[in-house]
Structures are given as C-alpha cells and as structure tokens.
Design goal:
The protein is an alpha+beta fold. The chain is built from seven helices and 17 strands. Bound molecules: fe (ii) ion. Fe (ii) ion is lined by residues 109, 113, 115, 262.
C-alpha cells in the first residue's frame, strides 16, 4: 500500500493538464497542485472530472476552502446532492454526537464500503475537506474496484460475471450493533437491494460491487456465498489497489464512488476529528447492462 508520504511519480496526464499532477500510487489516486481560486469558477471542471474517472481519487493538498467555497467547487463538477437528514449543504463527518446526530451511523465508516448501495442511483462522488484531525488514526483508505476487477483471473471473471448480491444496512450495522433490537432490524431490512457483483458501466469499464453492505449471494449456499464475498473483499483491498490518505488540515479529497471503496482507519469519538462533506448526485444505476 502506498500513502501520501510515498515517493510520487510524474503523472502520465501531466503534459495534458493545465495544472500540476502527480500519481499517488500506480493504480489509484492523483494529487493536484492548483491555485484554489481557479477551482471555484469551473474552468478546469472537465479536466478534473476526467482525472476523477480515470484515477478514482483526487487529492488537493491544503487548499483550505471555506464551506461556501467547497459548495461552489462541488457545483462546478456536477449536480449537487443534498444529504438526507441534514440542515444545509455541508454534512459533518464526526463520531462526536455534539457535532452531528449522524455520529452513531458513522461507526460503519470503518468498514470498506461503497456509499448508497441501497439507492437506485448511488452518488457519483464525495468531496471531503479536513477541518480538524485526530492525533492518532483517522486516515482514509481508498481502493480501486476497477483495477480489482481488471486484475481478476479469467476464471474468476467467469465466476463473478452474472452473480447477484443482496446488499443491506443490516450487514454493516451488525458490526457495531450485534444485538440490535428486532424492531431496528426490521426497519433496516426494508432497505435492501439486489445488485450485480460486476458493474458494467456506461463507459464500457467494469468494476466490483462489494463492501460491508454485501450480505449474501442470491441462490448460493451460505458458506459458498460468504467465501466468495470474503475472498473478493480481501482481493480488492490488497495493497496494489489501495491509496491511504494521511490528512493535513485544509486538504480536499474527492473520490469516484462508482469505481472505489473507502473506509476510515480507527479514531476516537473524542479525538476532535472533523471533516466537511459534500456530494455529487449519481449519474448511472448499478443495472446498466
Ligand atoms: Fe462512506
């Protein structure tokens, strides 16, 4: 696995981009050095979206945007997605219930996941800016589910091609609520979705749809189902597919939610860690093919 402190290579895109870029790992993640003011008027939105699609994760080190600037920047890149249950345009990512009433549900962010696997159209991308850091932990990891699919053996590609997986919030909430009430379980159970394991995107590429919400493979015996989901999650999160971002205050990171999984590394609810999140609305369903 490579991190923000790893040696960087010159981007293959560098000679085509009107700003400085550097690949953070060979398979996922590009750092962009740019005047923050030039992000706000959309002049480079096309180039940024192109890099996001090809590299999965974009890092803008210490651009120190205000909330209004983050919202404006987000709007240059697509359709702004308001978040459920949140007043205003900024979602506070924190484990501290004094910061957000969503703190409890963010416990699931420690597990590899794709956002919105129970939505008809999952969000396209998320934009996180670092406001306060934990002194220990709190890095964010991303893996490329495009690269993980591409590098599967031909045998595994044949196995997974038409597999359908049931995703449910029951699966990821049980990690921190193993003895949730039956009423709670029933409410969560209503929000499941059956999704193809292989996402055949409009762009012609394929990616794996996995993560903590993946509960079982339709029509498979339980032990075979768990075996496949565990094996593929382990595969997709191998170091060659992963970028780990070690945050500095003021960093902005964008990830393509349709071609990556992500997770936070453990940090304390009392650590003070605070991120501000905005999102871009989804543009394609899991069921293109
Ligand atoms: Fe997430």
């Amino acid at each position: 696995m490579m991190t923000g402190n790893s040696p960087r290579t010159t981007s293959e895109y560098a000679d085509r981009m009107p700003f400085a870029t550097a690949e953070l790992t060979p398979r996922v993640g590009t750092e962009i050095r740019i005047d923050p003011a030039s992000l706000l008027d959309g002049r480079y939105a096309k180039e940024i979206r192109s890099l996001l699609a090809s590299r999965g994760v974009l890092v803008f080190p210490q651009v120190n945007m205000t909330d209004d600037e983050q919202v404006a920047f987000t709007r240059t890149l697509g359709i702004f997605a308001l978040e459920d249950g949140v007043d205003g345009e900024i979602f506070k990512v924190s484990l501290d219930p004094r910061e957000t009433k969503m703190a409890d549900s963010l416990q699931a962010s420690f597990l590899w996941h794709i956002d919105g696997t129970t939505a008809d159209v999952p969000i396209f991308a998320s934009i996180l800016s670092a406001k306060r850091l934990a002194s220990v932990g709190g890095e964010t990891e991303f893996c490329s589910t495009y690269a993980a699919y591409d590098d599967l053996s031909d045998e595994d590609k044949a196995i997974v091609e038409d597999v359908v997986v049931h995703h449910s919030p029951v699966a990821n909430r049980r990690s921190h609520l193993p003895e949730m009430s039956y009423d709670h379980y029933q409410r969560l159970r209503q929000r499941g979705a059956d999704l193809p394991l292989v996402w055949k995107h409009r762009n012609g590429r394929k990616s794996l749809v996995l993560g903590a919400t993946a509960e079982y493979v339709l029509g498979w015996p339980p032990e075979d189902s768990m075996d496949l989901l565990m094996r593929l999650r382990d595969w997709a999160t191998k170091p060659q597919f992963v970028y780990r971002h070690k945050w500095s205050v003021g960093d902005i990171v964008i990830w393509d939610n349709t071609g990556t999984m992500h997770r936070a590394l453990p940090y304390g609810a009392d650590s003070g860690r605070l991120m501000h999140r905005t999102r871009l609305a989804g543009e394609e369903t899991f069921h293109n093919a």
